[in-house]
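Example 9 (inverse folding). The structure is encoded as follows.
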């Protein structure tokens, strides 16, 4: 119910009061205001209760790719980009924000880093959905496992192997040689 007693339409307001708040820009009803600062808009939807080392998931709406987003001053902003900008500084043109934790909803600035598009793609985990071997960069052809790594638009042939494990080790080694942001390949088994 809206504060006027009418049926709830959106953000705890009836249709008339919602439209008034939306178009006037100055009405504050049940904690919502168009003039609310960017940092408080972000913090309302980020769950940072797990501590500074854990992921801080976005609890609001997501876009079609699974990234948290919200509307601010007439345009949609990605939550992780806003979080990084507020904690570290402005994001230069031509750069993206890479989730080191690979959690698209994470807004913890310590899990985010500045990266080029190529570097961001290097930090993928696992194989593509159409890969039948389940190992990134390995395909199965004529009874053998073929290992290839793409880097700067060039496909690097790594070799043909009789076992999936050998092919997997070979592509990981080649990615470590060529890539700079492939964190999962660089993690040593314990």
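The amino acid assigned to each position is listed next.
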């Amino acid at each position: 119910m809206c504060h006027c007693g009418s049926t709830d339409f959106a953000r705890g307001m009836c249709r008339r009061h919602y439209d008034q708040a939306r178009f006037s820009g100055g009405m504050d009803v049940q904690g919502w205001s168009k003039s609310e600062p960017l940092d408080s808009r972000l913090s309302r939807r980020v769950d940072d209760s797990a501590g500074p080392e854990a992921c801080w998931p976005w609890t609001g709406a997501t876009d079609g790719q699974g990234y948290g987003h919200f509307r601010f001053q007439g345009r949609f902003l990605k939550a992780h980009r806003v979080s990084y900008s507020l904690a570290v500084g402005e994001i230069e043109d031509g750069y993206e924000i890479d989730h080191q934790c690979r959690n698209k909803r994470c807004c913890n600035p310590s899990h985010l880093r500045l990266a080029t598009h190529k570097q961001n793609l290097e930090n993928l985990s696992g194989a593509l959905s159409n890969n039948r071997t389940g190992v990134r960069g390995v395909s199965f052809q004529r009874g053998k496992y073929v290992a290839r790594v793409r880097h700067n638009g060039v496909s690097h042939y790594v070799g043909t192997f009789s076992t999936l494990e050998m092919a997997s080790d070979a592509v990981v080694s080649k990615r470590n040689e060529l890539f700079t942001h492939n964190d999962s390949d660089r993690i040593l088994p314990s």
